[in-house]
């Protein structure tokens, strides 16, 4: 999570609200994990976590 925090995101509800453009930006800028956001469906997973699941 530290890498995501370094990009300015601290809560699952923030990730759950990412637009396709934001997903693409994070996919490109997450050091050492390029493309991981899309491959692992982070937005969908974050929505579940944000709701307490």
Structural write-up:
This protein has one domain. It has 5 helices and no strands. It has helices spanning 2-6, 12-16, 20-29, 36-39, 42-50. The protein is globular. The two termini are 18 Å apart.
In short:
This protein is mostly helical.
> Largest sheet, described in full?
none
| Total of domains | 1
Q: What is the β-strand count?
A: 0
Helix content: 55-70%
Q: Tell me the fraction of residues in β-strands, as a range.
A: under 5%
Number of discrete helical segments: 5
Tell me, what's the shape? Answer: globular
Order of helices and strands: HHHHH
Rg (CA only): 10 Å
Runs in which pLDDT lies below 50 for 5 or more consecutive residues are none
- Helix-strand category: mainly alpha
Cα(first) to Cα(last) distance is: 18 Å
The average pLDDT value, as a whole number, equals 95
Core attributes:
53 residues; mainly alpha; 5 helices; 62% helix
Write the layout of secondary structure elements.
Blueprint: H1 2-6, H2 12-16, H3 20-29, H4 36-39, H5 42-50
